[in-house]
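User: Predict the complex with uracil.
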Amino acid sequence: MSDLPALVADLRERARYYATLSDLGLPPRAAASASEGPVASAAVDAAAADAAAALKAVREDVGDCERCKLAGGRRNIVFGQGNANARLMFVGEAPGAEEDAQGLAFVGRAGQLLTDIIEKGLKIPRKDVFIANVLMCRPPDNRNPEPDEITACQPFLEQKIDAIRPKVLVGLGKFGAQWLLKTAEPISRLRGRVGDYKGIKVVPTYHPAFLLRTPSAKKEVWEDMKVVLGLLAE
Ligand code: URA
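Assistant: Here is the predicted structure with uracil placed in the model:
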C-alpha cells in the first residue's frame, strides 16, 4: 500500500504517454493493451479520466465566485484551459480584456505570442499543455493583482496543479513566477534558474506581454524554453 503514490504517478505518466500516441494518430487503447493487456489499459484510461474529473470538481467549487472584490467587475471567470493530463503547464498573471470577454486564458495579443512560443518554439500543440493564471478574474484597467485577490484565488490554482501534476511548470512574469516559487525576488533574478513547486520543476521566464514591449528579451525566453524541453525529455 505504501507504493500507492508511486503507482498513481506511474499511471499518470502512462496516460500522458498514450495521449501522445493518440496525437500521433495511434489509438491509445490499442497501443496500451497490445503491450500491457486490457487491465493496464483500463487503469491508464482511469488515471487520465481522474485528472479531468479532479479539474472539473475544482471548476464546480469555484462556481460563480464572489470570494474577492474582482467579482463585481468581471464578465467571465477565466478558469484556465488545456489538457488535464498535460506534462507542461503555464501560470500567467491575470485575465486581460480579451480573456475576460471570452472566459479563456491568453487569447489576446500576449496569448498569440504565447501560442507561438508553445507551438513554433517548443513544437507542442497548444491543446496539449494547460494554461492558467494566478487570478481568474480581470483586475480593473489591467492593474496588478492585489494580495487579497491572490490569496482568494490561491487554493484553486493549487488544486488545479494538484489535479494536473505536470512534469514542468512555467511561471510567466513576476506574478506567475513569484506565486510558484513563493518568493518576492524580481523575475530578472528568478529566470535562468530551475525552481521547485511541491516536487514539480519550475522554469521562470518573462511574460509574453513584456516580450511585446521588449522583443530583445525573446532570446532569454528561448533559452528558458530550451531548459523546458530538456526537463520534459528527462
Ligand atoms: N496575461 C496574463 O497573464 N494572462 C492572460 O490570460 C492574458 C494575459
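The chain has two domains: 4-59, 68-233.
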